[in-house]
Hints:
Blueprint: H1 19-27, H2 29-36, H3 46-57, E1 65-66, E2 71-72, E3 74-76, E4 80-84, H4 92-107, E5 114-119, E6 124-129, H5 132-150, H6 169-173
Parallel strand pairs: 4-5
Antiparallel strand pairs: 1-2, 3-4, 5-6
Helix pairs in contact: 1-2, 1-4, 2-5, 4-5
Amino acid sequence: xxxxxxxxxxxxxxxxxxxxxxxxxxxxxxxxxxxxxxxxxxxxxxxxxxxxxxxxxxxxxxxxxxxxxxxxxxxxxxxxxxxxxxxxxxxxxxxxxxxxxxxxxxxxxxxxxxxxxxxxxxxxxxxxxxxxxxxxxxxxxxxxxxxxxxxxxxxxxxxxxxxxxxxxxxxxxxx
Length: 175
């Protein structure tokens, strides 16, 4: 197991919130807090490795868009954000992540139209609307992520049943 993170020193710039931060916030605020402090057990996770394989082997003609604090899977003509997930079911964090990417692009002067989450394993997509309400949700989610990252103590862990498959399980529930 990696060394314990220093709870007083976030590893990432507190103002730089990327898509992973948003995804972790929605899934588990404790996961976000640990991630921001440099605890990264994802490198040993079979599920994360599987997700990387799915990402690397689908939509191979597209190019990532690196914003520094976030890396978007790709953006099509007309400024539609695309994100690929290895999940077999849509989750709230997936759409929240795309809304966050839309917000980041808009702040850079891009006239964003919306987004699409791709689920290649089930051959489905989910459209993500980008409008005033979506912008407000993205801004609120970003503020929540910044508050969790800035907190001096870790948020409470979720009920153990919600942690199935999480690469942080050993840290949160280990003896």
